[in-house]
């Protein structure tokens, strides 16, 4: 798999395809079993984030530097729909039904967008403006169907100025976001990603894993802001930019600016 300036990628829900976005203005779809690129879609600006629809694998949503989310038909490569925002769309995720898209932009705003799962039509539902004096790009938007802390669906966002935010989601009000807690980390020079951790146990706590400029991987508990750091992984030689769990949530992959990927195995609870 080769693509210049890769910005994001996503697996289809049936695990047959990977979609990738790039600063070279292209979106590519790859058939995993054959390792072949089966579709190239050419845009007019850098493609910054990408997600398959969780129910209909033929819908592909892409955020770009032209301040848009564009929905493509994977089979034809044609645009189905698009909607415009105030700034570059830098991160995004779907809810589990595919009826909502959550996205963040280069000014630190987080949006909820309603999506028609049959037609791919988009409509802006809510906008959550950044409270920070300095507008910082959103590097992570991640949805989780259930949180023990919120007793319902939640959204994690991370911005380049080091702000981790944890929202509860009201599905009854088209994905309205309510800030539950936040954590301020050191500002980042790179677009470093964060991720929810697996639901480790029934104990109270909301664990987040984040890359760092100092070449370490950090684990934080958002419910303990004064003593938030609960673990640190060392092994990289460059800033850790990417973080991702496998679907079984027993393996964590971290990637750094030097091109190294380390896969960590989660210790069994003893």
TrEMBL record:
Keywords of the record: Repeat, WD repeat
- This protein's source sits in the domain of life called Eukaryota
Query: Where, in residue numbers, are the WD repeats?
Result: 1-40, 233-270
Gene3D superfamilies named in the record: YVTN repeat-like/Quinoprotein amine dehydrogenase
A family per Pfam? WD40
**SMART domains attached here?**
WD40
**Record flagged with keyword RNA-binding:** no
Q: Which GO terms describe its molecular function?
A: promoter-specific chromatin binding
Cellular component GO terms, alphabetically?
A: nucleus
Q: What is this protein called?
A: Anaphase-promoting complex subunit 4 WD40 domain-containing protein
Task: Give the species.
Answer: Nyssa sinensis
